[in-house]
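Re: How this chain folds, sequence and tokenised backbone to follow

Filed under: protein folding, tokenised backbone structure, sequence and structure records.

Contents: The amino acid chain and a row of whole-number tokens, matched residue for residue.

Body of memo: The sequence and its backbone structure tokens, given next.
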Amino acid sequence: MARPVDLEKRAQLAVQAFEVLRARGVAATTMSDLAGELGLKRPTLHYYFRDLGEVYEAVLDENQKRLRALAAERLLGVEHPLDLLLGVVRVLHEHYRGRRDVAILIGQLMAARGSADPEEIVRRGRRLLQEADSLRDRADALKGGLTGTLRVGGSPQHIETVLAPFVTRFRRRHPGIEVHFVEDGGARINDRLEHGDVQVVLTTAGNELFSSRLLYPVYALAVVAPSHPLGRRSSVDVSELADESLLLLHRSFGSRGWFDAACHNADVSPPIVLESGAPHTLMALAASGEGVAIVPSNVSIPRKGVKAMSVTYRGPPIGRWGLVAWDSRRFFPPFAQHFVNELVAHVRRDYPNRELTKRMPPLRRPKLPEA
């Protein structure tokens, strides 16, 4: 007669197996791998789980138990239907928010257990999270008041020089609105918005799928030591940089793309001394006489030790307008609209390096799609 399985031990192993699968990935984990990670011999693991299918079932069951326990705790004493609806959405949000890899892992386990396409499961999981966010925001709006959680995406420069000074005052005015930041840059930040990872982004790359409002002009700047031959200039054409040692940002930066395009059009290939992800590193090297740093004007420029000027191509300056954008195909809650309106008003009064750039020729304003 077979010895009965210790269900408590089996549940503990399922919890541990969940973390192994989360770290290694479903497709890359075999029963032998799992046994090794759990510190068990393979026959011992097979005693508790006949195959990977049973492991998946147990892991999914444990996730459901945790979700049900959280719901029971959060919804205790809640009676009004609207409060129940809002409570259920918040439970789902609390369980998976910040753990999107968990939600995707659950989808992969479901796909591995059945015959569904894993990629389609992942897409459905993302849509489910987005719909839960939207439902939560709609429920908050129905209850009235400016409350909710806003996820804002932007480059490190946008977060440092625009959002950090603005959000402190915004939080004081609207204590019921939580603002969380997601850092990314270039085209990736728009991908984040399209996938629903954030509700609002600061970007210089417009997208016809999104609604947006203009913020402020972002110029490509050349930064040099005051003693550099260009140190007395207010602008420099890309053709004049052909023989200069350049300190450039990585190609993932939007401003690097503007500069590279201008160099290509001007048919120049200046020597590159360093490519970095840190604008301040490039400017520090420029201050030491190591070359010319090319950075966007939304970085914090040192007040002493360097000279910054606009980079032009055949006259007009190189740059783009900064935008605040959101996906109007999704529900955009009132508190998010307040954030956008107040941010636009804020940058009309102040934006990074305003005193420097307002003396430069204006950038062409883009025509935005209607919100």
About this structure: The CA atoms of residues 185 and 279 lie 13 Å apart. The longest helix spans residues 118-143. The domain at 145-371 is CATH 3.40.190.290 (D-Maltodextrin-Binding Protein; domain 2). The mean pLDDT is 83.
